Amino acid sequence: MIQNITNVKGIKCWGAHTGVKSMRRDLAIIYSEVPCAAAACFTQNKVQAEPVKLSIKHMKDNRAQVIVCNAGNANACTGEQGRLGAEAMANTVAEELKIPVEDVIVASTGLIGEPFPTDDIVKGIKENIHKLSNTAKAGSFTANAILTTDTFPKEGFLEFDCDGTKVALAGMAKGSGMIHPNMATMLAFVVTDINIDEKLLDEVLKYCVDRTFNMITVDGDTSTNDMVAVLANGLAGNKKIKAKSDPNYQLFREKLMQLLTHLAKLIISDGEGASKFIEYKVTKARTESNARTLVKAISDSTLVKTAMFGRDPNWGRIIAACGNAGVPFDYTKADLYIGDNSNLVQVLKSGTPANYDKAYIKKLLRDSHIRIVLELHKGSEESTGWGSDLTTDYVMFNSVYTT
């Protein structure tokens, strides 16, 4: 049995084709039957799309009831016409569902700088909002309706026990290129029936996003439209989580981390033109923040990514990236390992080149899943991130993206 966001109590959705995209569904609506605690993380790009600006305004009270998203047009750099278009999306949904407009989160994805097709999308909302459903088919349609250059939908679902109460948690994401979130084009929408204080929900989402979506990269470009939003409607009926000291707060954070990690990895596995999924891990660091910074420096290095594409064990590029990360880094204490899912080979030991078989590492790097592990021997903290290689297919695809 397919399990998706429609397996969460009180959630209905639909994904439709409005004509903005020629072949794919391009309008997604996710609706909770009751108002929700809500939280969201948005792009830190100084150029923000109109739906991001509007949703930031609507999310000030950490309450929402519906998410509406169009694909095929980012509604970014569109001026007054785009602002009015984003507002029209929210107003139309609110009017049709008879809810406050402030309870509508708006998202868009697609080309930047194209006039926003407000009339087509508003018409599509009016024609499809009555189709909202809690069937698995509706969930599948919705996950497909938020895609742009993606080759497959990205979904996740899990259930867990919360003091004898079954809680459901589900989500969907999109992203393939322009992936370098800083809260690519990257969107993720999560729903749950857990009962939790909205301020705690906001806090736990930021914690998890920093360690999942903010630890992935395909091309180093942060989109104008990045958004991760979560709705928690409380219909599971668990005792409301009101404090971080509540063991169920830690439980929920663990489960949300699990779901977002799953979705983040799916995005990397669908990186534009990518031939490899690469996991980067920095261990034995003085602080988690330093470890995260080093992971990002390595994973975002063009030279590292091209080396992985060429199956070249040029580990000097990894060390050089760390030295340019802007945090303390003593390579003379570091150990470095490179390999595939099953085997790791040490290439650096306490800052000195290790004795290794370069031909054997090149063989390991043929695998589609690569691992790079850096041990700093400075403390007990660690961080993990994920990325893809940089291929000729990526260059070709993005050289003609709009033409």
From TrEMBL:
Family designation: Belongs to the ArgJ family.
Pathway where this protein functions: Amino-acid biosynthesis; L-arginine biosynthesis; N(2)-acetyl-L-ornithine from L-glutamate: step 1/4; Amino-acid biosynthesis; L-arginine biosynthesis; L-ornithine and N-acetyl-L-glutamate from L-glutamate and N(2)-acetyl-L-ornithine (cyclic): step 1/1
Domain of life from the UniProt record: Bacteria
Gene3D superfamilies recorded: arginine biosynthesis bifunctional protein suprefamily (3.30.2330.10), ArgJ beta chain, C-terminal domain (3.10.20.340), L-amino peptidase D-ALA esterase/amidase (3.60.70.12)
Name of the gene this protein is made from: argJ
Residues that coordinate or bind substrate: T148, K174, T185, E272, N398, T403
GO molecular function annotation: L-glutamate N-acetyltransferase activity; L-glutamate N-acetyltransferase activity, acting on acetyl-L-ornithine as donor
Subunit and partners: Heterotetramer of two alpha and two beta chains.
Name listed for the protein in its UniProt record: Arginine biosynthesis bifunctional protein ArgJ
Residues flagged as site, Cleavage: A184, T185
Function: Catalyzes two activities which are involved in the cyclic version of arginine biosynthesis: the synthesis of N-acetylglutamate from glutamate and acetyl-CoA as the acetyl donor, and of ornithine by transacetylation between N(2)-acetylornithine and glutamate.
Active-site residue list: T185 (nucleophile)
Reaction(s) catalysed (UniProt annotation): L-glutamate + acetyl-CoA = N-acetyl-L-glutamate + CoA + H(+); N(2)-acetyl-L-ornithine + L-glutamate = N-acetyl-L-glutamate + L-ornithine
The keyword Cytoplasm is assigned to this record: yes
Site (Involved in the stabilization of negative charge on the oxyanion by the formation of the oxyanion hole): T109, G110
Gene Ontology terms: cellular component: cytoplasm
Family matches, as InterPro entries: Arg_biosynth_ArgJ (IPR002813), ArgJ-like_dom_sf (IPR016117), ArgJ_beta_C (IPR042195)
Gene Ontology annotations of biological process type: L-arginine biosynthetic process; ornithine biosynthetic process
Main subcellular location of this protein, as a coarse class: cytoplasm
SUPFAM superfamilies hit by this protein: DmpA/ArgJ-like (SSF56266)
Pfam families, A to Z: ArgJ
UniProt-annotated location(s): Cytoplasm
Segments forming a coiled coil: none
Keyword terms, alphabetized: Acyltransferase, Amino-acid biosynthesis, Arginine biosynthesis, Autocatalytic cleavage, Cytoplasm, Multifunctional enzyme, Transferase
The keyword Zinc belongs to this UniProt entry's keyword annotation: no
